[in-house]
Amino acid sequence: MYSICFKFTGNQFDAEDLTQDTFLSVYKNLATFQRDYEKAWICKIATNKGLDFCKAAGRRSEPTEDTYFAEVKDNRDGPEAAYLQEESKEYVFTICQSLKSPYKEVATEHFYREKSAKEIAEETGKGIKTVQTQIYRAKAMIKKLIEGRATRR
Fold it and tell me: What is the rounded distance in angstroms from the CA atom of residue 50 to the CA atom of residue 43?
C-alpha cells in the first residue's frame, strides 16, 4: 500500500499519511467488504486516495510572495490612459453639443452617456424607431463635423 501511495505523492511523509488514510477507510468499511478480493479492494482504496491527493494538490499549493504579486494583474488604466479617455469623452460631449435639437439631446444621451436607444425612448417618451432614426442622423452629422475639422488642420 505504501508503494502505491508513494507513486502518487513522491513524498515519504504524504505517502505515509495516505497509507494511514487507506487503512482507516478499510477499517471503516469492513462491513461492506467481500472476503474474496481483499488485496484488490485495498489497492483500489489506496489508488482512489492517491487520485484525490493529486486533485487536491493544486489547491494546497501556496504561491510565494514574488510569484503571487507577479500573477496579480492591475486592470486599472494608467494615468495617461485615464487622461486620454477623459479628453476623448469631453470631445464627444463638445461635438454632441454642437448639433441642433433634437439631435443634440439624443446624441448626448447615446454617445456621451452611453445609453441605448430603448433607454432614451423610455426616458423621453418618444418611439424607439424615432430615437433610432435620430441616433442614425446624429451619427452622420457628427461624422461630417469630424471630417470637416480634420480637413481644416
Answer: 10
Residue type, 34: Q
Dist CA 66 CA 71 (whole Å): 9
Q: What is the pLDDT of residues 127-148, one digit of tens each?
A: 999 999 999 999 999 998 888 8
CA distance 101 to 107: 10
Enter the DSSP assignment of 29: T
Write phi, then psi, for 69 (nearest 5 degrees). Answer: -75, -25
Does the global pTM surpass 0.70? no
Contacts of 117 (CB under 8 A, 6+ apart): 110, 128, 131, 132, 135
Q: Which amino acid is at 39?
A: K
Tell me how far apart the alpha carbons of residues 106 and 141 are, in angstroms, rounded to a whole number: 12
- Whether the CB-CB separation of 135 and 143 falls below 8 Å is answered with no
Question: Could you tell me which residues come within 8 angstroms of residue 10 by beta carbon, excluding any fewer than 6 positions away?
Answer: none
- Residue 59: what are its φ and ψ, rounded to 5°? -75, -25
